Amino acid sequence: MQIRQAEKNDFDAIWPIFSSIVKLGTTYAYARDTSKEEAYRLWMGLPEKTFVAEIDGNVVGTYYIKTNQAGPGSHVCNCGYMVAANARGKGIANALCEHSQIIAKEMGYLAMQFNLVVSTNEVAIKIWLKQGFDIVGRLPGAFDHAEYGLVDALVMFKTLN
Fold first, then answer.
1. Cys-Cys crosslink for 133: which of 43, 76, 150, 156, Cβ 3.0 to 4.6 Å?
2. Cβ(121)–Cβ(135) below 8 Å
3. For position 1, what pLDDT does the model report?
4. Of 67, 52, 68, the residue nearest 15 (C-alpha)
5. Residue 27 CB burial class (10 angstroms; 0-12, 13-18, ≥19)
6. Residue 34: which residues within 8 A CB-CB, separation 6 or more?
């Protein structure tokens, strides 16, 4: 697997991953009917950098990195990760998270924060805990899950050393 910085034309390969995950309404707080144009803005335009993971030239995962808060909070970054359904269970999310921490340090960030980890996303929570993140907060009923209704969301944090 290779992880590299995404280029504009990579979004055509990212879009099917993004749209399939967002349509489920189970892990991301994006509108389930997010347009391709809005998805591009959210995943490629707003973040400072976006990366893709490739296997045999095929994009199987992606992540973005951006500053979590402005001004006095700008030393903390935020990332979002997505893995194609047919590539899950192969360690891609774990590899993307490891890579993002290296990039975050190179960019001068001192910590990483995940603002809204859906409590029912047990696979992601297990990976983030394994990566050294702590659950620092629980937001009761903060996510309207497509299947379960209102569920809690977690705030997860890691100091980068």
1. 156
2. no
3. 95
4. 52
5. buried
6. 18, 19, 22, 42
Q: What does the block give as tokens for 105?
A: 């340090």
Could you tell me which residues come within 8 angstroms of residue 13 by beta carbon, excluding any fewer than 6 positions away? 52, 58, 59
Nearest residue to 115 via CA among 45, 38, 33, 29:
29
**Domain that residue 82 falls in:** 2-159
- Of 95, 123, 117, the closest CA to residue 27 belongs to 117
Per-residue confidence (pLDDT) for residue 161, from 0 to 100: 85
How many domains does the chain contain in total?
1
Summarised one tens digit per residue, pLDDT across range 59-89 is 999 999 999 999 999 999 999 999 999 999 9
Residue-level pLDDT at 95: 98
Q: What is the CATH number of the domain that holds 129?
A: 3.40.630.30
Cβ atoms of residues 141 and 126 within 8 Å = no
Q: Which residues of 83-110 are buried (b: 16+ CB within 10 A; e: fewer)?
A: bbeebeeeebbbebbebbbebbeeeebe
